Amino acid sequence: MNISISSSLRSAPEKKRHWPAVSIIMPFEPVIRRKEDLMMRLQKAVKKAEWEMGTGYDEDLAELVLMRLRTVIKNLNFSTFKKSIAIYVSPVFEKVIYLNMPVNETITVDDSFMIRDILHAKKEMPHYFVLLLGETRSGVYEGGSSGLVKIKFNSAAGMSSFKTEAVQADVGSGSNDLLFKNFLQHTDEGLGILLQSMPVPVIALGNKEVSAHFKEVTKHNHSIVEYIAGNNEEATESGLFDVVKPYIAEWNKIKTRYLYHQLESAAAGGKLESGLRAVQQSAALHRPRLLIVEKKIISDPLACEMEGIEQPIENRFAKFSCIKHVIDDIIEKVLENGGDVEMVDDDMLGGQQIALVKG
Predict the structure, then answer these.
(1) How far is residue 283's CA from residue 310's CA, in Å, rounded to a whole number?
(2) How many whole angstroms separate alpha carbon 2 and alpha carbon 190?
(3) pLDDT per residue over 267-294, tens digit each?
(4) What is the pLDDT of residue 248?
(5) Which of 33, 131, 233, 353 would bridge with 297, disulfide CB 3.0–4.6 Å?
């Protein structure tokens, strides 16, 4: 595993600096990893931070930071279902954020820290659903970079309640159409339940006729990024993965299309805010679901001044906190409320640079 360790030290300073700030961003997932293994990785991270602080920081303050860091680690929540963790500790400040996103392990020692560093540590891993649409059965598979795992299966033959409803309709051959429509609606409802807990892109597989019918009944077109035509009803999991593999190989296109769909859906439902001022206000008042930021606004320190946004440093946060910029303030609110944050290429948002999808 590649671990990034960075410091602002470029050459040996003439005198020791005073305010070491340590940030540790790493995978966590205590529900599937042994606590002993996680503690071992955390202790290794502390050792690396200790070594880094020994090369130019005040010894007493470095020892204070290490003591606070060990206390934070001792009191971590090992019952959380989150995927990763971000720990920030300075001589006068400490903060822990539990994250839903996968990250690369990153250990940073500097004079201060910024919460936006989480975005640079975020690991780009394909995560999606494959929706199998057949005439007599359907299934949903959770996908990654190396394969699929079946998580839901429906069979039209086993849906007796829908059969009864179709017979009672007494419309001749139309009863089959009603049964099939109900079958597809049931499939869509199951997909919706999964998307509520895991909002990820969906790739649908089915012949043209079935896919056309499904498009008419689904309430989740904003999550479906691709319809792949073909008769895959009897295919194995490995066979289905072979079908979607060429699309997953260009994951950035899939992700971009998915984000566009999310923005369009949110705008249609009145749940989209764009521009720094509107996003900052909305993130504080509403439950944010998805924040999309362009790379430029993350790296440009003048972005807020250009928009006339007052920085939240002086009257809201300590000098050595991890909130140094309105962007960090927004990102923190979204992450702490269980939302996701995506960094995208410049100009994707049509000049607004930042957009928020409300829950």
Answers:
(1) 15
(2) 38
(3) 999 999 998 889 988 988 878 999 999 9
(4) 95
(5) 353
pLDDT tens for 195-252 read 998 899 999 999 999 999 999 999 999 999 999 999 888 889 999 999 999 999 999 9
In whole angstroms, what is the distance from residue 145 CA to residue 254 CA? 13
The C-alpha angle with vertex 90 and arms to 84 and 95, in degrees rounded to 5, equals: 35
pLDDT at position 166: 42
Q: Which residue type is seen at 268?
A: A
Please state the separation of Cα 37 from the chain's center in Å: 24
Task: Identify the three-state secondary structure at position 266.
Answer: helix
From the list 226, 153, 246, the residue with the least C-alpha distance to 194 is: 153
Type of residue numbered 258:
Y
Structure token pair of residue 177: 């159409």
> pTM for the full model?
0.78
DSSP assignments along 285-354, one per residue: HS-EEEEEEEHHHHH-TTHHHHHTPPPSSTTTS-TTSS--SHHHHHHHHHHHTT-EEEEE-TTTTTT--E
Question: DSSP class of residue 355?
Answer: E
Q: Is the pLDDT of residue 112 over 50?
A: yes
Nearest C-alpha neighbor of 292 from the set 237, 239, 356: 356
Q: d(Cα 168, Cα 42) in Å, to the nearest integer?
A: 63
Decide if 237 contacts 147 (C-beta within 8 A).
yes
User: What is the SS3 assignment for 157?
Assistant: helix
- The Cα diameter of the chain in Å comes to 91
E strands in the chain? 4-7, 21-27, 84-90, 93-99, 106-110, 128-133, 137-143, 148-155, 202-206, 224-229, 272-274, 288-294, 340-344, 354-358
Assess contact for 339 and 262: CB atoms under 8 A.
no
The number of residues making up the chain comes to 359
Structure tokens at 153: 């299966």
In the prediction, which pLDDT does 4 show? 54
